[in-house]
Amino acid sequence: MSSNYNVTRSQIIQLENTTKKKLATYSSKYAQYVTKKPNFKEIELDKSIETLIKERGELLESITNSIDEDNDELRSKYLKHKSELNKDQKELNNLRSCINQERNHLNLLITVKKDILAENNNFSSTEEYMNDESMRIDKQTSVMDKLIQDALNSRNQIMEQSNEILFNSNSRVNRLLQRVPGISTLLTKINTRRKKNMVIMSCLIGVCMFLIFLTF
């Protein structure tokens, strides 16, 4: 029985050493440098540590009945192995918890960064669209201004041509009238008669105003 106990305890010690080495690797390599997803090696390492702890527990259970309650030395060694088992299990759980928290935090940061980049891209697209629209409106406004200016220039030219045509027509009519015999005399009489009529009308208006003044 003592021989079996020694063999089992030797296996437990060996598994303890292997477990602690792998826990140290887990802590230094994966707990301090967390990635957004666990890779194959990290998963395999976690499984191997879990398997070692399970095997150690089974071995401790197998020697429980072999320990004499009066044998304080064996019992002390057993309790020490049991304590190391619980300690390593707790350390594994803590490492898993820390890695998961860091991974969640990292993924959250990545998500926020993606949202910010997407928002910036949308803003850039909107800004480019607004710039394009502004340039398009400026071009249309420029075209309209040119059309309006051309229309004004055309109107001014037409008015100048019309005035010139009317002036030329009046000049021609006057020249023609002057060439026709008796027309000049007739026009002079008409103008003289107009002046007389204007004098008569002025006098009449003056008399009426005087009579109205006397009435009051």
TrEMBL record:
UniProt KW Protein transport keyword: yes
GO biological process: endoplasmic reticulum to Golgi vesicle-mediated transport; inter-Golgi cisterna vesicle-mediated transport; intracellular protein transport; vesicle fusion
Localization annotation: Golgi apparatus membrane
Protein's UniProt keywords contain Electron transport: no
Chain coiled-coil ranges: 71-102
Keywords: Coiled coil, Golgi apparatus, Membrane, Protein transport, Receptor, Transmembrane, Transmembrane helix, Transport
Superkingdom of origin: Eukaryota
GO MF, any single term: SNAP receptor activity
Any GO CC annotation of this UniProt entry: SNARE complex
Alphabetized InterPro entries for the sequence: Golgi_SNAP_su1
Topology with respect to the bilayer: Single-pass type IV membrane protein
Membrane-spanning intervals of the chain: 198-215
Main location group: Golgi
Family: Belongs to the GOSR1 family.
Identification of the protein by name: Related to Golgi SNAP receptor complex member 1
Taxonomic placement: Eukaryota, Fungi, Dikarya, Ascomycota, Saccharomycotina
